[in-house]
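Input record (one chain):
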Amino acid sequence: MAVDVVMPQMGESIFEGTVTKWLRKPGESVRRDEPLFEISTDKVDAEIPAPATGVLKEIKVPAGQTVQVNTVVAILDSADGASAPAPAAQAAPAPAPAPAPAAVAPAPAPAVVAAPPAPTRAPAPAPAPVAAAPAAAAGADVRSSPLVRRLAQEHGVNLAAVPASGEGGRVSKRDLLQYIESKPAAAAAAPASAAAPAPAPAYAAAPAPAPVPQVYAPGSVRVEPMSIMRQRIAEHMVMSKHTSPHVYSVFAVDASAIAQIRDREKARFESTTGQKLTFMPFFLQAIVQTLRQFPALNSSMQEKSIVYKNDINLGIAVALDWGLIVPVIKHAEEKNFLGLQRGVNDLAERARSKKLLPDEVQDGTFSISNYGIYGGLFGMPVINQPQVAILGIGGIHKTPVVINDAIAIRSIVYLTLSFDHRVVDGATADQALAFLRKQIEEWNYPIL
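The corresponding structure, as predicted from the sequence alone:
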């Protein structure tokens, strides 16, 4: 019997995915739960298992194509009678006609219209209907994901004005980004035509020229398209820089105490627990204590309010061969030293083998970037939105320092705190780093 293979919904806020690689070719057999293809979403890259045992009959969505969730991407000719759940049937009622931008905006709203295309004070011009289009409240009636709504709010975009191509009239992230890219040109053309009555056509006919691709000598370069993950990283980094005013503080910390403990206990720790002892759980446990003391660092900004998080969910940046991902240790405040070490090892291993679930890269409240494993002294990491701070951990290096007017060799690490100045003041950031430094330099927590 034929079994539909569908694009899975990898989390509540994920509505589309990109097929990045097929692991079987048409005509090849596959067993139930064996990896069949790989996908990339806004949240995570993952291997998707076959829903049944059989032969791959047809691939409907080739690698590199992005489709809505529940879209049939392939057909399996199943030998066993076990048919896979067909969530595609759930998608059938959804296809409402794609709404015209002007027709989807019935609700009134506060005057948040960003850059109306025609003068709002002059009653004569015809663009008055466009100015009447609601801004913030209308967006509440538009189907979209939380990520899309947040991006729209940050860019001052009325979602009701964005042409929707998603399932059931849903505005996808791609729809919004395309609208934002086209918005500056339209906004620039409208004031020009309104301000210059006669020479306007000549002025409006000279928009900023599109950048001309640079021409290289044959054989001098290799051009590769960005992967889906790299595109998502680029979008997220630009969005973070546009959203948060980044400020940085750097502290030099004497890590000699934890370095000595690790050297002394790593053999016993591994034989007792089966886990390799790294420096990361030392920092994580100290960070948990710091976030308890300074809850502003464990918060987010929502319109004109600050949301303080009760849970401490630590995101750990993991470098992959194909990009970067930030899996999250949930409820880190409830874990002891061993639990933190196990959590780090488990998430890092499954991130590299594409076994992470979408829930494991969501809901982080504070992030850590450990570039010290490559020997770097310190860096300036970008805040992982919607968080308000991220800690960068440099390499631990033997360094001559002055202690009581004498030169001594100590294990020094540089810690960088990048913080959102809308929420966190410099004094709070420095106090938090000073507290964190004390936890590390005067380490007194058990590791077993």
